[in-house]
Amino acid sequence: MAEQTDLFSLHGIWVTRFWVDGVENGTIPHDNRSLMYGEGVFETLRIVDGRIPLLETHWRRVRSAAVQLGMAISIESAELFLQTIDLSSLQWLRLQWSPRSTGRGYGAQDNVAYCQLLAWGGADLSHQSGAVKLVSLTTQLPQRSFSSGLKMVSAAEYSHAAAELKGLAQDQQLTDGLLLSAQGDVIETTRSNLFFIGSEGIVTPCLNDHGVSGVMRSVVIDYAKAQSWPLSIRPVSQQELGSFQSVYLSNALMGCAPVTQIDHHHYQDSKHYDLQSLTRELGFNND
Questions:
Q1: Displacement of CA 75 from its chain's centroid (Å)
Q2: 258-278: buried (b, 16+ CB within 10 Å) or exposed (e) per residue?
Q3: Which of 33, 74, 85, 97 has a Cα-to-Cα distance from 65 of 20 to 30 A?
Q4: Other Cβ atoms within 10 Å of 222 Cβ, number
């Protein structure tokens, strides 16, 4: 691990290194639009033995974000950056693309010049162990219009939800919190996507108007299709939680993990659909 200097915390994970456009400990410009207006998108990459197993899936979502938001993003520059650092010393990286400014104000986004690339990295990722217990939060996810499914820098609803969860977790042994829409549909947790298993097979919530379409979620969907497993992508109401036998979390840092409890509902590992096999294949449990 690199020498830990000037540590600070990002989403509960200790950060040890930071880069601005490939320059370690570089200076963020005063007109950085991620800082000023919350503009930009990011990806959190898991590193296993010096490689990034889900890299191409991450790039696919970044390219989609560039088109969806009209941002000038250079994947090539990001790939060159990855080649310049020692990935074997890291377990994760956060890459964030921030639009450059042409002046002052909301309308001064430079859509021609490539976005600034900010990066954080660390080598102290902990594994989820023990029972995974979720609780329904009162924080609701807003309906998205232009940024549907993307990992946006501006995410006040997730910060608010995390604060709510922190308050509840002081009295209960909670792993994460369940996020709903205003219509009462289950969307995701504060950190992960969801897969439910019941009589119709595998069900994952539809994310057309809410939430983040995670990279690991995409991998699980493709894997289920390749295995010819029955899969439905549809709205899931909170009232349905008691009808499922198994529930799994998925994200790009941990892979897939079985949920033991949501509120007063209890679940068991699926005997028919081994979603954790993906985690093993990707090597996420090896380090």
A1: 19
A2: bbbbbeeeebeebeebebbeb
A3: 85
A4: 12
Residues of the chain by 3-state class (helix, strand, coil), percent to 5: 25, 30, 45
Among all chains, which residue has been given the structure tokens 């080649």?
83
Output the CA torsion 5→80→285→244 (10° steps). 110
The Cα–Cα gap between 119 and 52 comes to 15
pLDDT per residue over 161-195, tens digit each?
999 999 887 767 788 999 999 999 999 999 999 99
Of 203, 26, 200, residue with least CA distance to 98:
26
Question: Measured between alpha carbons, how far is 279 from 216 in angstroms, rounded to an integer?
Answer: 10
Three-state DSSP class for residue 136: strand
Residues 44, 15, 130: CA angle, nearest 5 degrees:
70
CA-closest candidate to residue 265, choices 286, 287, 285, 236:
236
Residue 8's pLDDT band (cuts 50, 70, 90): very low
The label of the residue with tokens 């310049």 reads: 84
The two tokens of residue 100 are 């450059």
Radius of gyration of the chain from Cα atoms?
19
